[in-house]
Design brief:
- It contains five helices and 38 strands.
- By secondary structure, it is mainly β.
- The strands form six sheets. It has a 22-stranded antiparallel beta barrel. A five-stranded mixed β-sheet has the order 8-11-12-9-10. A four-stranded antiparallel β-sheet has the order 3-2-5-6, with no helix packed on it.
C-alpha cells in the first residue's frame, strides 16, 4: 500500500476557500461584457474560483506576503495582480485583452482529459483529481471516475476502454515509469507509487494520444512535476495508518525537498474486521528527495529520487485449490530517480532532455518462491521549434533499456529466466491551426524493438473544429504498438509487438462553468499474444479483438452555490481472443456500463469541505471451468458510495486540516466473482472461493500540519 503522508502537503496547500479575507470583483472582456466562467486563483496554490453569469467573483483567501491573483479566460491574455497586504477585503476589476488570435479556443480534445495549473482550456484542475472522495490521495482511484475507465476494485489499476491494465503507460516529465504500481498478489488491490502532490499537471489520454509517447496499446498517463515551490514549508502528518514528515527549503533560484514516511496497517487491521487472514499486515517505509535549480540562462533543472520498501504476509488461497490456504509473504524494494532539463532558446526553440533509472525487486514465498527483478535505464531528448503563425514542430528521440531476471523454485522445479530489452524510438509531430476554426496535430513515430527484432511506424492524427461559441468537434486516429508483457517474454522471445488502431470522434461544449462532452470510439486489436491450452512456451501473435463504445461527461461548477460536481458514464462493447482464451469473449476486467458521480461542497460556516463519490459498474464476466461455456458467469453489480470531510483549523498557531474519509458508506455487498483452482479435485471438479474486498469499508483519519511561510491560520 502506498504511504499517504503527502496528503498533508496537498490538503494544507490546496483545499479550496480556506481564508478569512475576501477578494471580490468582476472580470470583463471589453468595457461592459462580462467574462463568464473566467478562472481566478492565488498563484502557487489551488485556492481559486470562477466568475458567474455577470462576470463577478468572490474568493476567500489566507492573507500573506507577496500573494498574486492570476486571472485567465480562454481566448484572452492572462493577467496577474499583486494583492496588497493588511486589508481584510478588496474589490478588483479586470478588463481582459484578446489573444493575438482567437484560435486558442480550439483545442485537441479527442481522447484527452487534462488537469493543469497553467493551461486555461482544461476540464479539470489538479485539485479535482486528488480531492475526489474515495481516492485517498491516489491518482489512479481519482482517474477511475472519468469516462473511458472503470472500477476493478479487486485490482486497483487503470483499465481503459476494453484494454488490460498493462496497456496504460505512465510517464513523468516525459520519461516512462517501469513500475507505477505497488506490488500485489491476486485479489489484493494496488495503489499508484507516486504522490499526486508532486505534480502540477496531469494529462490522461484514453486513446489517440500524441506521437511523443509510445509502447502503449490503450492509454498514456502523462504527469508533469512541479517547478520551483513558492516558499519554504514543513509538513507533518499523523494518520490511522502511519506518519510522515516533509521539508522544502526555497532559495532565490533553487529549492531542495526531502521527506520520509512510515505506514503500518497492523493497528488498523486489529480494529477493523478483515476478510483477509493477516499474519503480518502491510508495513512500508519511503524516502523522497527533490532538487530544483533555475539557471542564469532561464533553464530549469529538476532532479528527484524515490525509494520504497514494503512487505506483508497473509494466509492466501492455494493456486491448485483455493478452498485451502497457506502462508504467503511478499517483500518489495523499489527505486526510481530522474533528472530533466528544460530551456527556452530565444523564444523560438525549446529543449527538453531527461535521464531516468529504476530498479524493482519482488520476492514472493508460499509453497513456491519467486525472486524477480527488473532494472531500467532511459534517456530522452525533445526539441520544439515555435513559428510566428501559431505552428510548432516537435522532434524527439528516446532509448529505454530493461534487464529482467526471475528465479522460480517449487519442490524439484528450478527455473531461471533472464533477458534484456532495448527499445528505441524517434518521432516528429507538428501542431497548429488551419484557418480560424480548425486545429491540427499530425505526427509519425518510428519504433525499434531489439529483443523482438521488429521495426514499426505509427502515424497519429488529431483534428478539432470550432462549432459556435464554446463548442467544438474533434477527431483522432492512430496506430499504437506495445511489446508483449514480460510474463510472456520470459518463456519465449519469438514474438512481435502487439498492435491497436484507434478511431475517435467527440463533441465538447464549455461555457459559463459547465462542460458537456460526448465521445465515440472504436479500437481494433491485432497481433495479440495467444497460447494454446495455457502453454505460454508456445505463445504466438495470432490474437485479435475489438473495443467500441460511448463516453459521456458533464461538469457543473455554477448551478449549486459552493458546489461542484461531475458525472461520467461509459458504455463498452468489447471482445478479444488472446492469451488462453479458447474463443473470442469479453475479458473479465470489462464491464458494459460504468457510472461515476462526484460532488464537492464547501460549507463556509463550518470551514469544512465535503466530498461524495458514487460508483456503479455493471456485472463483469468470469469463467467457471466446470462448465463447457467460456466466461459464462457474471459478477454482481458493483456499487460504492464514498465520503470525505476536511475541517480547517489551527494547531499551535499553524494551519491544520483534520481529514476523514470512509468508503462504501451504505455497506453495499461487494463481490468480484470466484477464484477457481488450476487443477481438478479427485471428483474432476475445480473448487472455488469467493473474491471479496479486504474489508467491507475502509476508514481513514489524518491530521496534517503546515509549518512555514504563510502557513498560520488567523481569525
Amino acid at each position: 500500500m502506498k504511504p499517504t503522508y503527502f496528503l498533508a502537503t496537498f490538503l494544507i496547500l490546496t483545499t479550496a476557500l480556506h481564508g478569512q479575507s475576501i477578494l471580490a470583483g468582476r472580470v470583463l472582456t471589453g468595457k461592459t461584457e462580462p467574462a463568464v466562467g473566467a478562472n481566478l486563483y492565488i498563484k502557487g496554490t489551488f485556492d481559486g474560483t470562477s466568475t458567474d453569469a455577470d462576470g463577478q467573483f468572490h474568493l476567500p483567501y489566507l492573507p500573506g506576503d507577496s500573494l498574486t491573483l492570476v486571472v485567465s479566460y480562454i481566448g484572452f491574455q492572462q493577467l496577474e495582480q499583486l494583492i496588497p497586504t493588511g486589508q481584510d477585503s478588496l474589490w478588483l476589476e479586470f478588463r481582459l485583452k484578446p489573444q493575438a488570435s482567437e484560435l486558442q479556443q480550439v483545442v485537441i480534445s479527442a481522447g484527452a482529459f487534462e488537469a493543469s495549473d497553467e493551461k486555461k482550456a482544461v476540464l479539470l484542475k489538479p485539485i479535482d483529481i486528488v480531492t475526489t472522495a474515495g481516492s485517498n490521495g491516489n491518482i489512479v482511484a481519482a482517474l477511475n471516475t472519468l469516462p473511458g475507465t472503470q472500477s476493478n476494485a479487486e485490482d486497483g489499476r487503470i483499465f481503459v476502454r476494453g484494454g488490460d491494465a498493462h496497456e496504460t503507460q505512465t510517464f513523468i516529465d516525459g520519461l516512462r515509469v517501469p513500475n507505477p504500481y505497488t506490488s500485489n498478489v491476486p485479489d489484493l488491490p494496488v495503489r499508484g507509487r507516486f504522490s499526486p502532490f508532486l505534480f502540477k499537471g496531469t494529462s490522461f489520454s484514453t486513446g489517440g494520444y500524441s506521437a511523443a509517447y509510445g509502447d502503449a496499446l490503450s492509454s498514456a498517463l502523462v504527469l508533469q512535476t512541479k517547478d520551483l515551490p513558492e516558499a519554504s514549508v514543513t509538513s507533518l502528518s499523523m494518520m490511522t495508518i502511519g506518519a510522515g514528515v516533509n521539508h522544502t527549503e526555497r532559495w532565490e533560484n533553487s529549492a531542495l525537498s526531502a521527506g520520509v514516511d512510515y505506514t503500518n496497517l497492523g493497528p488498523y487491521t486489529r480494529l477493523v474486521p478483515q476478510n483477509i487472514d493477516w499474519e503480518d499486515p502491510v508495513t512500508a517505509q519511503g524516502a523522497q528527495v527533490g532538487f530544483r535549480q533555475k539557471m542564469s540562462n532561464g533553464a530549469l533543472l529538476k532532479a528527484q529520487a524515490n525509494a520504497q520498501w514494503s512487505g506483508f504476509s497473509m494466509r492466501h488461497p492455494l493456486p491448485e485449490n483455493p478452498t485451502e490456504q497457506s502462508l504467503l509473504s511478499l517483500q518489495n524494494d523499489n527505486y526510481y530517480g530522474s533528472a530533466t532539463y528544460h530551456q527556452l532558446i530565444k523564444e523560438e526553440w525549446q529543449l527538453d532532455a531527461g535521464l531516468a533509472a529504476g530498479y524493482d525487486n519482488e520476492r514472493i514465498d508460499q509453497h513456491f518462491s519467486v525472486d524477480r527483478s527488473n532494472a531500467m535505464m532511459q534517456g530522452r531528448a525533445v526539441a520544439i521549434r515555435y513559428f510566428e503563425n501559431d505552428w510548432a514542430l516537435k522532434l524527439g528521440t528516446e532509448w529505454i533499456h530493461s534487464d529482467f531476471d526471475e528465479h522460480y523454485q517449487e519442490a524439484e522445479t528450478d527455473i531461471q529466466s533472464a533477458f534484456q530489452e532495448d527499445y528505441l524510438s524517434a518521432f516528429a509531430e507538428t501542431e497548429g491551426y488551419l484557418g480560424e476554426k480548425v486545429a491540427l496535430r499530425a505526427g509519425l513515430r518510428a519504433e525499434r524493438y531489439n529483443l523482438l527484432d521488429a521495426n514499426r511506424l505509427s502515424p497519429r492524427l488529431s483534428l478539432a473544429y470550432k462549432a459556435g461559441q464554446g463548442g467544438q468537434f474533434a477527431f483522432a486516429y492512430g496506430h499504437f504498438y506495445q511489446a508483449p508483457q514480460q510474463d510472456w517474454l520470459r518463456f519465449t522471445q519469438n514474438l512481435s509487438p502487439e498492435r491497436s488502431d484507434h478511431y475517435l470522434v467527440n463533441y465538447q461544449y464549455r461555457k459559463g462553468g459547465r462542460t458537456i462532452r460526448a465521445e465515440l470510439y472504436h479500437k481494433e486489436y491485432r497481433n495479440l499474444v495467444q497460447f494454446p491450452a495455457g502453454t505460454p512456451w508456445l505463445a504466438e501473435n495470432s490474437g485479435e479483438g475489438y473495443a467500441r463504445g460511448l463516453d459521456l461527461f458533464y461538469r457543473d461548477r455554477v448551478s449549486i452555490p459552493n458546489g461542484d460536481f461531475w458525472v461520467s458514464y461509459s458504455y463498452l462493447d468489447t471482445e478479444r481472443q488472446y492469451e488462453d482464451f479458447p474463443v473470442a469473449a469479453t475479458p473479465d476486467f470489462a464491464a458494459k456500463h460504468n457510472l461515476s458521480v462526484v460532488y464537492k461542497h464547501w460549507i463556509q460556516e463550518l470551514q469544512t469541505n465535503v466530498g461524495l463519490t458514487y460508483t456503479l459498474g455493471s456485472p463483469r464476466p468470469y469463467d467457471d471451468p466446470n462448465t463447457p461455456r467460456f466466461n459464462d458467469l457474471r459478477t454482481p453489480t458493483f456499487q460504492d458510495l464514498s465520503l470525505n470531510l476536511s475541517y480547517l483549523t489551527e494547531l499551535f498557531g499553524h494551519f491544520t486540516i483534520v481529514h476523514a474519509s470512509v468508503s462504501n458508506v451504505l455497506g453495499f455487498e461487494q463481490s468480484f466473482g470466484e477464484r477457481f483452482g488450476n487443477q481438478p479435485d479427485p471428483n474432476g471438479r475445480f473448487t472455488s472461493t469467493a473474491i471479496r474486498p479486504p474489508a467491507p469499508r475502509f476508514f481513514f483519519v489524518g491530521v496534517f500540519v503546515s509549518i512555514g511561510e504563510g502557513s498560520t491560520f488567523s481569525n
